[in-house]
Design a protein that fits this description.
mainly beta, Porin, eight-stranded antiparallel barrel
Length: 188
């Protein structure tokens, strides 16, 4: 009985001493939500990528760069190009693409911003053929400064190539690479 009385008095003391959120606390939460992920305007990115294919015993390693505009504190739209090298097949490809991303913010998470993105474009392959390049990504951005950030992305990718089996025949699509990629980026 003595323990129950002590417990009840501790609960009552905690209830009396606790207070509702003050306007200052609410303001701090709202400032965290409205703080921009990256300032609106120009945003560039330099990336190191590794593309791992599902069915083939090879991987592409390379660099890409993307430049565009950040607007409304959460949307990015731009374009870019890169150089990816397949060391096993002694081939390279140059993707040229448009890139769109949506960033997500929350009051409780001020230092890590999840995002989803989509790259669509074409790819020039070392044999002289070209094809489709597409990558769907999910990742996180960690701000390092007002204009700098580190992003880590993963997701599936698809690269096709169009080729002509012999002269005078129609071009047709051959599946080139289907698999997953990992990307580490520094944005500025």
């Amino acid at each position: 009985m003595k323990k129950l009385g002590l417990l009840l008095s501790a609960i009552i003391a905690a209830a009396i001493s606790s207070a509702a959120q003050t306007p200052a606390d609410t303001t701090a939460v709202m400032e965290a939500i409205t703080q921009p992920i990256h300032p609106n305007g120009y945003m560039g990115e330099a990336s190191i990528e590794v593309l791992a294919t599902g069915a083939y015993h090879s991987a592409d390693i390379g660099i890409t760069t993307t430049h565009g505009v950040m607007f409304k504190d959460r949307y990015f739209f731009g374009g870019g190009a890169g150089y990816l090298r397949d060391f096993n097949a002694n081939q390279y490809l140059i993707p040229i693409y448009i890139d769109g991303r949506i960033f997500f913010k929350s009051a409780g998470n001020k230092r890590i911003y999840p995002h989803v993105g989509l790259r669509l474009g074409g790819a020039l392959v070392s044999e002289g053929s070209s094809g489709f390049y597409g990558a769907l990504s999910g990742g996180v951005r960690v701000p390092i400064g007002r204009h700098l950030g580190l992003s880590i992305n993963i997701g599936p990718h698809l690269i096709t190539k169009y080729e002509r089996p012999s002269y005078g025949k129609e071009f047709h699509a051959n599946g080139y690479k289907i698999g997953f990629f990992g990307r580490v980026s520094m944005d500025f």
